[in-house]
Amino acid sequence: MPLEKVIIVGAGPSGLLLTLLLSRASIPVELIEQTEALDTNPRASHYSPESCYEFDRAGILDEVREAGFVPDGVSWRRLEGENKSRLIKITNPLPQPGDDPDSVTFRHRMVCLPLHKLGKLLETHVKSQPTAEIKYGWKVVDIGEDTDKGKAWVKVEKEDGTTQIREADYVVGCDGANSIIRRKLFGDWVYPGYTWDKQIVATNIYYDGFKDIDYDDSQFFVHPEHWHMVARIQPDGLYRVTYGEVGGLTYDQLKERHPAKFQAILPGNPTPDQYKLVNFSPYKVHQRCVDKMRVGRFLLAADAAHLCNPFGGMGLTGGIADVGSLYDSLRGIHNNRAYDSILDKYDEVRRKIWHDVINSISTENMQRLFQYANADEFVEKDPFYKLVQDMQNPDKKLEKGGPPNATRATAVDL
Predict the structure, then answer these.
(1) Quick one: where's region Disordered (predicted)?
(2) How far is residue 31's CA from residue 172's CA, in Å, rounded to a whole number?
(3) pLDDT digits (tens, 9 = 90+) for 136-145
(4) What are phi and psi of 389, to 5 degrees?
(5) H or E element that contains 317
(6) Torsion angle of alpha carbons 234, 238, 240, 245, nearest 10°?
(7) Which of 132, 185, 151, 143 is nearest to 347 (CA)?
C-alpha cells in the first residue's frame, strides 16, 4: 500500500531536503521542528558533487548555484612566510573548449552556499508542496509504535504546553547531534565513538587582508599549534576561519585567547579593530556512529546517526547521501517496488560507508593538519600529499598493475 504519511523530526538541511524529495514524489510528510524558525547563523557549506546530485533530484540545484558560487578549489599551505606558500592544490574543474558546461561533470561540481541560505531555499520549496507541512514550535517528548495499526507515533509538546500524538508509517530523526529520536531509541548517553582531545573554534569574519594575498577559495594550514582552515563562503567576502585549540578550555577562555590566535594565523597579523567578527562558535569534535540507523518504524539520518570532524566536509556530504538513500528506499516502498526490508539495507550500507569511508578519511583530514612538526615534514612524509603530486604529474606512471604507458589524471577534481 502507498505510504499514508512520513514524519520527519528536525528542520535542518537534511530534514528539509528529505521532506522536499518525498513530497515531490507525492508522499505526505509532516516536518516537526522544536524551534520557532530556521537557524539563521551564516554557517560554512561546500557541497560536493554527491550533494549536488541530490539537489538536482530535488529540483533546487540551479537556484543553489545562482545563490552561491563555484569555488576554485582547495589547497594545503604552510603558515610561515609572508605569502603562506601553497604546498598542493586540488582544483574544481572548469569547462574547457568543446566541453558541455551542462554535463554532469560540470553541472554537479562543487558549489558553495551558507547553510542558512540553503535552509531558507529548501523551506520555500517545501511550503509550496501540497503534500508537506512544517510544524514549528513542536517538541518531541516521547515516541513509540502501535503494532496493531502498523504505525509509529511521536508525542509532541506545543508552544502552549498542550501535547498531542502524531502517527505515521515511519518516523525519521534528522534532529542533529543531540537527537531526541536517537536518545529515545538508545538512551541519553549511548552514542558509540569518541570525542577528540582537541576542540575547534569556528568563526565567520570580514577581513580586507584576505584581498592582499593569493589565497584560494579554500585552504588548510599545516602547523602543529596553529592548524586551521580559511574558506570564502559568500561572494561579498564573508570568510569562515576554523582553527584548532587545546581541549578543556571554557568559552570565556577561548574568547580571551581569540585575538592572539587571529594575530598568529591571519595574513597581516591583524588586531581586532582590523576585522569584523560575525560569529564565534567553539565546539567539541566527535567521531561517532549509532549501532542501528533503523529500529522498527524509526529511522535515523545525518548527524542524528553519525558525527565526524568538519575538515573535508565529510559529515555534511554523508548526511545528504543518507537523505538520498532513504528517499529512494521510502519511495520504493510507496510505489510497491520494494519491501520494507530495504530499510534494513539502508541501515547496513550507510553505517558501512561511515565506518569504511567517512570516519577514516575525516580522521586523516584532521590529523594531517597538526601531526607534523612543520610543513616540510608534511611534504616529505604525508601519503596524501604524495598521491596528489602523482596524480597531477602527467609523466608519472601508474602503480604496478597498470598499463606500461598509462598515466594518472593530470588534475584532481573535487
Answers:
(1) 393-414
(2) 10
(3) 999 999 999 9
(4) -60, -45
(5) helix 314-334
(6) -170
(7) 185
Amino acid type, 330: L
d(CA 45, CA 232): 10
User: Is residue 213 within 8 Å of residue 75, measured between CB atoms?
Assistant: no
Cross-sheet strand order for the sheet of 163-168: 139-146, 151-157, 163-168
CA–CA gap between residue 167 and residue 178 (Å, rounded):
22
Answer whether 45's CB lies under 8 Å from 66's CB. no
Angle, CA 265 vertex, CA 259 and CA 268 arms, to 5°: 85
In 25-114, which ranges are continuous DSSP H helix?
A: 49-58, 61-67, 104-107
Containing H/E element for 47?
strand 46-47
Q: Which residues contact 94 (CB under 8 A, 6 or more apart)?
A: none
pLDDT band at 356 (very low <50, low <70, confident <90, very high): very high
Q: Output the pLDDT for position 25.
A: 98
SS3 208: helix
Three cell numbers at 280?
564565534
Place of cell 517538541: 139
Task: Name residue 220's beta-bridge partners.
Answer: 76, 229
Q: From 288, 311, 314, 306, select the one nearest 51 (Cα to Cα).
A: 314
State how far the Cα of 400 lies from the Cα of 393, in Å rounded to an integer.
Answer: 17
Contact indicator for 122, 24 with CB cutoff of 8 Å: no
